Amino acid sequence: MKFITISSILSLATSLVAGQSFCSGSSHSGQSVKVTSNKVGSIGSVGYELWADSGNNSATFYSDGSFSCTFQNAKDYLCRTGLSFDSTKTHDQLGHMYADFKLVKQNIQNVDYSYVGIYGWSRNPLVEYYIVDNWLSQWRPGDWVGNKKHGDFVIDGATYTVYENTRYGPSIDGDTQFKQFFSIRQQARDCGTIDITAHFQQWEKLGMKLGKMHEAKVLGEAGSTGSGTSGTADFPYAKVYIGSSGNQSNASSSKTLPASSSSKTIPKTSSGKTLPVSSKTLPVSSKTLPVSSKTLPVSSKTLPVSSKTLPFPARPSQFPARPSQFLARLSQFQARLSQFPARLSQFPARPSQFPARPSQFPARPSQFPARPSQFPARPSQFPARPSQFLARLFQFLARLFQSLPRLFHLLVTLAPVSQLLLLLFKLLLLLLTLNQLITTTGTTTTMETVLQSGLNVVVTVSPVQLAVLKVPANVLMNGTLNVFK
Question: What is the mean pLDDT of residues 290-318?
Fold first, then answer.
């Protein structure tokens, strides 16, 4: 019985040593797939994703969970691998989760923000979470990642700053409102084991509770607010697993393998040193221990991998300017401002050279000759339209016909007057004739002379008029002077 206990302790110690060995020497292994465009997929039991908004990018994923990210002129780039779940169990129901990773940075340039660590989602409530152990930029992610800062906490032997944020945007369930949780390590590290569940437990103490787990993956993300970021983030070792630290279970199953009751962690002193082990040699039995031929059942089912591209909490354009960037942009602005007078002098025309000013315009509104109210003719003054003209013409004719009887009566009344006028005309003609005769002969003209002149005039005159004309009385017959040939 003692031999079995010692064997368990030695096995655990061996696993711990093996768990630390990946930091000193590790390399990619297993099948691989190279992706050059945005894609969500899986290789073996490992789920992966590549996403970038621009640039010439690629990523190579391996069946052992390791991966390599290469980006060039990318504004925002990320790749990740790890475990996917079906959103039916909480992290407590799944078991204690860990992640081992090793990061190798190669030719990293122009990175303004970055996250390296653990990334995932949960449902009910909908939460997007980050555990950041490193970053590819020269700036540690700061207070701009969340609108609520809970403070600094020691989690799994290191100090992390915890943030909480509420956001509306794209998520695994579409555009909606969701929470964001952040744990950001104060001192970055390139290799180590992340106790994922320990962060979950610390968040729950602060009222930051996760729901049913959707995924837990090792993440590499880099972004730039300028022309784009370039470089390679290589992860020669990356595994997310459920169980004891260093005791990796099959990544394809979300079940926790049963741990032996004797698999306790070797105690350490406060200084981190391992307690001394007795130098005595334990007796070894010559008997060979029976080895069971049975193998532990392994689930053949693979968890479904979501085909949705997971959104990310922040884009480079949303980050406020950092002090160094602000000073650089301020100096650029001052340089451009100093060039402004020189550029202004190059313009071909200055305001003083413009040909016409407003005061020189020839006509102002008050000088316009005619206003609408002064127009001579208005629509009401226009002559009658054809239809109106015909109507008025008919009215005139009707009135004319009505006045005909009156006109006829007037003519009848004026008939004597017309006769008198005719008589006067004849008398005038006679007088003119007599005057011509007197002028011609120079003698007093008698009626005979008149008769000899060939006139044929019948005039009704009074005796007085005949006396003036010196007409003999015997010519007068009933007051009628007959002059005829």
Answer: 48
Pair of tokens at residue 194: 């992340």
Please name the residues in contact with 45: beta carbons below 8 A apart, sequence gap of 6 or more. 63, 250, 251, 252, 302
> What secondary structure, in 3-state letters, does 56-106 show?
CCEEEEECCCCEEEEEEEECEEEEEEEEECCCCCCHHHHCCEEEEEEEEEE
ω before 125 within 30° of 0 (cis)? yes
Boundaries of every domain in the chain = 26-254+303-316, 415-483
Degrees (nearest 5) of the Cα angle 205, 207, 211?
105
Tens digit of each residue's pLDDT (9 = 90 or more) over 227-246: 899 999 999 999 999 987 65
Beta strand 191-195 pairing with 39-43: unpaired
Tens digits of residue pLDDT in 185-221: 999 999 999 999 999 999 999 999 999 999 999 999 9
At 399-435, the pLDDT tens digits run 888 888 888 788 777 777 778 888 888 888 888 877 7
CA dihedral 130, 131, 133, 134 (to 10 degrees): 0
Q: Identify residue 351 by its one-letter amino acid code.
A: P
Contact 369, 362 (CB under 8 A): no
pTM exceeds cut of 0.90: no
The angle subtended at Cα 432 by Cα 431 and Cα 437, nearest 5°, is 95
Beta bridge partners of 82: 47, 217
**pLDDT on residue 382:** 54
Contact 86, 303 (CB under 8 A): yes
Is the CATH number of domain 26-254+303-316 2.60.120.180? yes
Question: Residue 238's closest CA among 117, 140, 113?
Answer: 117
Active site residues: 128, 221
